[in-house]
Amino acid sequence: MTVIKRFILAIVIFVLVVGLLGFGSGVILVRRHWPKVDGSIQVSGLQGEVTVIRDSWGIPHIYASNTQDLFFAQGYVQAQDRFWQMEFSRRIGSGRLSEILGKPTLDNDRFIRTVGWHRAAAQDLENLDAETLSVLQSYSDGINAYINANTGRLGLEFTLLGLIGTSFEPEPWTPYNTLTWAKVMAWDLGGNMNNELLRARLVTQVGEPALEVLWPGYPQEHPEIVAYPLSDAALQAVPEVAQRGFIFGEGEGVGSNSWVIAGSRSETGTALLANDPHLGIQMPAIWYEMGLHCVPLTAVCPYDVVGASFPGAPGVIIGHNDRIAWGVTNLGPDVQDLYIERVNPQDPNQYEYQGEWLDMQIVPELVYIAGQDDAEVVNVRITRHGPIINDVVGGTEQDWAFGWQPLALSWTALEGGEMTLLRSVLLINRAQDWDEFRFALSFWDVPSQNFVYADVDGNIGYQSPGRIPIRAQGDGSMPVPGWTGEYEWIDYIPFDELPYSFNPPEGYIVTANNAVISTEYPYFLSRDWAPGYRAQRIVDLIEEYSPISITDIQVMHADSLPLWAKDVLPYVTALTSDDPRLAEALTLLQSWDGRAVRDSAAAALFEAFRLHLVRLTYQDELGEALASRAASVLSQAVVNELTQPDSPWFNNLNTAEVEGRDDILLQALHAAVGELSETLGNDMSKWRWGDLHTATFTNAALGQSGIGLIEAIFNRGPVGVDGSIATVNATSYRMTNPYTVSSLPSYRMIVDLGDLTNSLAMHTTGQSGHPFHRHYDNMIDPWRNFEYHPLLFDQAAVDADAQNTLILRP
User: Fold this and answer.
1) 325 pLDDT higher than 50
2) Pairing verdict, β 39-42 and 804-809
3) What share of the chain is helix, strand, coil (3-state, %, to 5)?
4) Cα(first)–Cα(last) distance of the chain, in Å?
5) CA-CA distances (angstroms) from residue 11 to 34, 376, 711?
6) CB-side exposure of 484: number of CA atoms within 13 Å?
7) What is the pLDDT of residues 255-270, one digit of tens each?
8) Confidence of residue 13 (pLDDT cuts 50, 70, 90)
9) Three-state SS across 290-341?
10) How far is CA 549 from CA 44, 257, 271, 319, in A?
11) pLDDT one-digit tens code per residue, 95-123
12) pLDDT per residue over 522-574, tens digit each?
């Protein structure tokens, strides 16, 4: 029986049970998974008593007298609210989803086992420093204490899986599980492999000279980089799963905004910090808010911190302590390279390097699949550069050896040695000033981020950390020959030479995945910066609003004006048409205020026009598949082409006529009007962007089952939202799947360093991962309407808002 059929059977059984037992028993069946949050529980493994106070938003604030108990309780509490999410995430990290979900996740598992996050995590575990390992162990012990005491009540997902015959007892959580989770984060946030592959595909299709036109910003200062020819077969053999995000999202929309304001530019005269990471939409949220408090605060128990954590990892990732606050955006340096390997025709398990044939390392990975007795064997081939990634899904040994060029992946997170990311998190959480903060970041290895900083003394700063390679030659923008030795990594950029800023004269620092450094910087970081629209808009608003208040920052978070439209609209609104429908559409765009808000008809029209403009300009040259894959990049290229009315890219190769810019603009507008007339009706005045641009918060495991009742249990939405691609309020969608939100501001935070009690936050769904719990989805509407909850920190404020108090006793 297939997994889908078994799920249908499971839901039928579930509905029958609830129906036969009555509504009251159905409620009990659902609520039996909800954790105890009041009273006291005796828990083996604690040294002392721990108090867990949940506020009115379900945010736990943990008070413990020692570090071991603090992180033990963090693991316990996260498991109370989010254990299924944690179980699912660790199975992603180790490539073991197919054990419970069957063949639908087999391609994912094959690829993850091939790349080897789990192998790298095991090596990292052997090299962890004693303090980090101790924290991870305490955290794991807390999770296991909850698992062991709540067999059969860990989550509704476990119950449904049990109904279809996939009943399993969760394994004990170990530090290794947290490290594999960290590899998933590093993969989703830290690589450019997709861009390398896309560049290679574009060069294969239209040649290298055209790449400089199609990929705006291609640096002219690197003319020596010449693409090595890759066969189409080699590119087609790269599995689609290799180009997906697994937890944190994927594509251009995965980024973030952060900015810090010095007292010279704030209404309070003290520093303000704002952050909103843009990550993949999901249910429950990526983030889990909490406070970690040592009572008393001492040198041996130095944590007094609040903010957003990741279920599955100790500490607080974004937030503030009693003296400093910090936020993050994705730096996006080039830390992944693809090497084309040359295979020995006489032995497919050997490859050439500098004139010698070297043996590949062959690692057999056993992938177990629900419903099958025998495991599937994936033979992973590893060269000096890393695992071969286009030998994963499908194909025979003979095809692999002689049918295409093997591509080996080098990635900093796979390099041998100690992963120090979690050590960095713990040091950040207890840092007291700029020097301690920078010291903490010197251990942040992957994924590289932009960190902004502010403190109670009025200082603001910026630091980019990470393990970023120095290459003997080239910049890693496209696959390179692996056999010559000319493109090897020779070192990493020293931390003290990575970009940073402290108290700049402008009185503010803005990061929005834009270029960090100028061309004078002595090291190569990346050529794939975001276009800079969000960063420019934030700077414009800071200059306009100064002196800045917390209310101003809330307005900035909500800003939904796409600057891309300002580049394009003048060419459109200058047009005329005898077609009444096009004339009406032009009038609508001419009167548009430029904001992509949910009740705007013009925003709906413009966003549809955007897609058709890119398609009509480039699809004839690139083909439908490649034009669709490259749509995000091409949307920037077309801005440059608009300055040239007779650019050859506007000419449609499939027609006898010679089209120019204005022809294609009118054709794109006509196509957009036709599309929206079909989907939203003929009355343009009734079109609404929010009817197209919706957010559905989807459970990663069961939310895409295709079974309406299961999806209704676990998913929430769709709901209309403001924003678009590259707006400050970055509710992005994939241009291959318009207009549904794929990534969004996953957590909005504002910290007032002059008075921490004024600080605010909100994430996307709710604290609980248990369907129908009141904290499962109670943040969705406040989030989409740009509302915030107080980011409680002082115990007096926490006590005043306490809704539940749980005492954990040894």
Assistant:
1) yes
2) parallel
3) 40, 20, 40
4) 46
5) 20, 29, 11
6) 10
7) 799 999 999 999 999 9
8) low
9) EEEEECCCCCCCCCEEEEEECCCCCCCCEEEECCEEEEEEECCCCCEEEEEC
10) 48, 17, 10, 19
11) 999 999 999 999 999 999 999 999 999 99
12) 999 998 888 889 999 999 999 999 999 999 999 999 999 999 999 999 999 99
Cis peptide before 216 (omega within 30 of 0): no
- Biggest alpha carbon–alpha carbon distance for the chain: 82
DSSP 127: T
Q: How far is CA 596 from CA 344, 512, 605, in A?
A: 56, 19, 10
Strand duo 386-387 + 407-411: pairing: unpaired
* Average pLDDT of span 718-722: 98
Residues 161 and 705: their CA atoms lie apart, in Å, by 12
Token pair recorded at residue 584: 């009406």
Residue whose C-alpha is closest to residue 160's, from 311, 372, 18, 368: 18
**Which residues, 6+ apart, have CB-to-CB distance to 282 below 8 Å?**
247, 697, 698, 699, 700
Evaluate if residue 306 carries a pLDDT over 70: yes
Dihedral sign from CA coordinates of 348, 351, 352, 358: negative
Lowest-confidence segment of 268-277, 648-657, 698-707 by average pLDDT = 698-707
Residues whose CB falls within 8 Å of the CB of residue 434, separated by 6 or more in sequence, listed in order: 453, 455, 459, 461, 502
- Is the pLDDT confidence value at 399 over 50? no
CB 455 within 8 A of CB 322: no
Q: Where are the beta strands (DSSP E) in 298-444?
A: 304-309, 318-321, 324-330, 336-340, 343-344, 347-353, 356-359, 361-367, 376-383, 386-387, 407-411
Type and span of the H or E element at 747: strand 747-752
pTM for the model? 0.94
The alpha carbon torsion through 647, 648, 653, 657 (nearest 10 deg) reads: 60
Distance between CA atoms of 409 and 358, rounded to whole angstroms?
17
Are 421 and 446 a contacting pair, CB within 8 Å?
yes
What is the C-alpha to C-alpha distance for residues 275 and 510, in angstroms, rounded to an integer? 10
* 462-480 confidence digits (pLDDT tens): 999 999 999 999 999 989 9
Residue 265: both structure tokens together? 């530019």
Buried b (16+ CB within 10 A) or exposed e, 449-462: bbbbbbbbebbbbb
Q: Is the pLDDT of residue 241 over 80?
A: no
Contact status, residue 416 vs residue 370, Cβ threshold 8 Å: no
Burial class of 657 by CB neighbour count within 10 A (0 to 12, 13 to 18, 19+): exposed
> Across-strand partners of 752?
272
Centre a 10 Å sphere on the Cβ of residue 237 and count the other Cβ atoms it contains: 23
Q: Is residue 215's pLDDT more than 60?
A: yes
pLDDT band at 403 (very low <50, low <70, confident <90, very high): very low
Per-residue burial over 146-170, b = 16 or more CB atoms within 10 Å of its CB, e = otherwise: bbeebeeebbbbbbbbebbebeeeb
Residue in this structure with the two tokens 């030659």, named with its chain if needed: 473
Residue carrying the six token digits 């749980």: 806
Identify any residues that bridge with 741 across adjacent strands, giving them in sequence order. Answer: 733
AA identity, residue 620: D
What residues contact 214, with CB distance under 8 A and at least 6 apart? 202, 206, 618, 630, 633, 634, 637
- Select from 511, 549, 545, 546 the least CA-distant residue to 530: 511
Contacts of 682 (CB under 8 A, 6+ apart): none
Distance CA 553, CA 635 (A): 29
Contacts of 185 (CB under 8 A, 6+ apart): 247, 248, 310, 447
